[in-house]
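Table 4 source record.
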Amino acid sequence: MPRALPTSLPFSLLFLWLAFLPAVAETVESTSPLWMQVSPISGADEFRTLAGFAGDEQMFVGSINQPSFSASGFWGSGEGLSSFADAYSSRDASLFHPIGNSGVSFSGAAFDLYPFGLHWTAGGSLIEADDTPDRTSWFLGVRSGQAGAQVFQVDRPDGVAAHALALNLNLPLGQLHATHVTAPDHAGLSIIGWQMGLGSLAQLAVQFRQGESTRYVDGAYQRWMVSLSGRFGHPGGMLADQGDEDQARIAHTALLAAAAVGIALVASSGSDSTDSRLRYSTQHDAAYNVVNGINPTSVAQNLEYGGWVYRNADSTFSAAEPKKGTVDKVNLGSPLNVPSGTTTTASYHTHAAFDPIYDSEHFSIMDLAMNNTWGVDGYLGTPAGYLKYHHYVTGIITTIGTIAN
């Protein structure tokens, strides 16, 4: 993108700063999945079934129950993150992997034992998704009347993708739970929550979560969340409150199996090792990082550098490696030349060193015209050390910060 000749026309500068608190409080009102239990078949009281529905997702569980053990099979399908497990978000998933899951299907089995008043559950689930290698999620859980613990391991074809640990404790007023999910590449998610039933059809929950990742550069975040949700036949609620021990057992197995699938979808896309690009929560952050890094080289060499900023499938942003240009221009190539599954949202370039021949501190007319033609925003690093931003929809140009020079 070319530098313009000096001009005496002034540019109005507007300083925009976005401040984010380290902990964000949210109030969320949602509805839990709908669970339906099928009555035992006449003459086959040991066989129970359970079906769950949440939007475009469905899960089915069949269980054979004996006094000392039970065996279950489960299967289901849906889109994206699992709504049957804890409410993981796309931001949580972006800590671990670059893509979301679509067209997900899963199936698995579990085996339960009941020695000495304890309920032990062990099982595994195979998770399949479009354009993603298969994953296997193993789980082991134990619970008594007042407490429970579960461990999970998610495997991909190239090795272990994640481990998780969950703890639950029944209190006089509600339930306390904690979950920690970690991956070998130092991504982690911790959730601590408390929930209490409000009558038979609703529950109040308070939750704190913290995430961090080496991939998601500014992905370290903290968040408080307060939610009010329905309990329409939820296995942890109505189904378990009917005084039927077999019913409570299959409900517990369904929740544990759902958690195993949910953790697998959050903690591994199955393609983590193929994508090592850094990710940022905003377009500004991605542009600042790349321009701040290349601008000193651009000034020292008196050469322009530039490239593209693009949005990833997980709604984060990344920047392409800078291309070297000449003293007064750089060819960025086509905005379509970005990784598969991403969308170009902005251009970026530098204006080399100060030169009285050029108006190096401002976008050139050609810079703005190219952004408008491509339908993308633009970022400019100047030799004086300013990062300027062109919002192509409004045409407004602002200075959003200072950079190395």
